[in-house]
Amino acid sequence: MNRAPTNWDIFGGFGRGETGERINEVGNMGDKLKVFSGSAHPVLAREICNLLETGLGEMTIHKFANDNIKVKIEENVRNADVFVIQPSTIPVNEGFMELLIIIDAIKHASANRITAVLPYYAYARSDKKDEPRISITARLVADLLETAGANRILTMDLHSPQIQGFCRIPADQLLALPILCDYFRAKLEDDYVVVAADAGGVKTTAGYAARLHLPLAIIDKRRFADDDKAAVLNIVGEVEGKKAIIFDDEISTGGTLVEAAEELLSFGVREVLAGIVHPVLVGNAIQKLERSKLKELVVTNTLPVPPEKKLNKLTVLSVAPLFAEAIKRIHEGESVSALFR
Length: 341
Ligand code: R5P
Fold this sequence. Notes:
A seven-stranded mixed sheet has the order 10-9-8-11-12-13-14, with helices on both faces. The chain is globular and about 60 Å long. It has eleven helices and 14 strands. Strand 5 (113-118), helix 5 and strand 6 form a beta-alpha-beta unit. By secondary structure, it is α/β, with parallel strands linked by helices. The chain folds into two domains: 6-175 and 320-340, Rossmann fold (3-Layer(aba) Sandwich); 178-317, 3-Layer(aba) Sandwich (Rossmann fold), CATH 3.40.50. Bound molecules: ribose-5-phosphate (R5P).
């Protein structure tokens, strides 16, 4: 049957054995590939499955009157290579607990290998001991995933690279950089500067600047309390008369981005765009963005963006092709870092 080419074809589709059979189906490259989704972001999981040309694994999640969750895997996963997709969305703790219980159920159903796929890693900002006697929850998340039975972790744009080192099981970090850069490259007909929203993001943002062959400026932003509020102190680099593209790992309350846009405009920037990986968009972030002077916000779909959050100035790019390709490569034992070369 003829069909329109999918994104998956662009990546070359599944490898084929000598007789042309689909490798994952016959299992001659190892165990059968299965993909399951928690309730956080089934739309993304289905998109990934479509690209992999596989169905979403069947499972039921039951919540008892006492708020306990029971997961039942409704198909055979014995010896399978299983990927469970669950980004961290609100309610964060419930979603994470659900992920642990799904992994537990799959482990006890005798899967051969389980990869926890967290397009947005839970508690990513709790990654350091910058005050006495505080939790480092991103580390705890890694430990809990391993304890539940995950053998690998697949994630995207961690808030800080050290989180990868928190994991004692292999952890692959994908980057949305190629997706965001391809989008912005198509617009670059003018004098642009890439801007890091804070000093912590300089290394990552420098990667965007290098890929786009643009100069880099840095916003010197500080948080003085643990209250989601930050103050812009200075801008390092030449921005006057240019158009600016701010890159950051996440937009949560929108405070950082809106304030950065205002500061840049007050420093003589002509127009501000932003490319942000994870659209957390909590509280009144959408209203803030709508009122702001930001011209365009480009995010990815690592997290769901419901219709009521879809502003005219918001563009959502899909990370599904990248996740599908990474899952295929992990399954077939190929390099994942090659995706970024
Ligand atoms: C902070 O270090 C992050 O990179 C983001 O800038 C921050 O999470 C954005 O938060 P908000 O949107 O609440 O200002």
